[in-house]
Write a structure and sequence with these properties.
Elements (H helix, E strand, L loop, with lengths): L7 E4 L4 E8 L2 H16 L9 E9 L2 H19 L1 E13 L4 E11 L13 E2 L5 E5 L2 E9 L1
Antiparallel strand pairs: 1-2, 2-8, 3-5, 4-5, 6-8, 7-8
Length: 146
C-alpha cells in the first residue's frame, strides 16, 4: 500500500501565513493549496458540501494561475459568503501562451455560529510564491496576507 502523501503544511512567517501544498498532479496541488487556505480561515471538517461553484480561469503562467485560483475562491467566500471544504480541479491546461483551470468548489453558506472564524485572509500574494516539480509530483509555497 502506498504511503500517504502530505496535503499541506504551515510554515513560520511574521505577519502573514505561509504554507506548502503538495500534489501528485498539478490538479491535486491546486486542490490542496485551496484546502490549506480555507483551513487557515475555518475548520473545513465542519463544512458540508451542498453548494457548488464552477470556476474557470486563464492566466499567463502557473504561478499567476495559482494566485488567481486562490483569489477567486477568496472572492467567492467574501461576496457569496460560501465556505468551501472540497475542491475538484478537473483540468489544468497548458495552452501555449497561457494556462487554464477548470474546477468545482463545494461548500455551504457561511454562518458565523456554525463556522467559527479563525483568521481573516485579506489577499493571496506573489511574495515568496514558488511552484516546483518534485520526484513525488508537485510542491507550491504560498503566502497569504492576514
Amino acid at each position: 500500500m502506498p504511503s500517504q502523501q502530505k496535503q499541506y503544511e504551515y510554515l513560520e512567517h511574521t505577519a502573514d501565513i505561509k504554507f506548502l501544498a503538495y500534489g501528485r498532479t498539478l490538479e491535486e496541488l491546486f486542490e490542496n493549496a485551496a484546502l490549506a487556505m480555507f483551513n487557515v480561515m475555518i475548520d473545513t471538517g465542519k463544512v458540508s458540501g451542498e453548494t457548488a461553484k464552477e470556476v474557470f480561469l486563464k492566466s499567463s503562467d502557473l504561478e499567476s494561475l495559482l494566485v488567481d485560483w486562490l483569489s477567486e475562491l477568496l472572492y467567492l467566500f467574501e461576496v457569496d459568503e460560501i465556505v468551501f471544504r472540497k475542491f475538484q480541479v478537473k483540468e489544468i491546461r497548458d495552452e501555449g501562451s497561457e494556462y487554464s483551470i477548470t474546477a468545482r468548489a463545494s461548500g455551504e453558506k457561511f454562518y458565523p455560529e456554525s463556522h467559527p472564524f479563525e483568521t481573516e485572509i485579506k489577499a493571496v500574494t506573489y511574495n515568496q510564491l514558488e511552484i516546483e516539480k518534485t520526484a513525488d509530483g508537485w510542491k507550491a509555497q504560498v503566502v497569504v496576507d492576514i
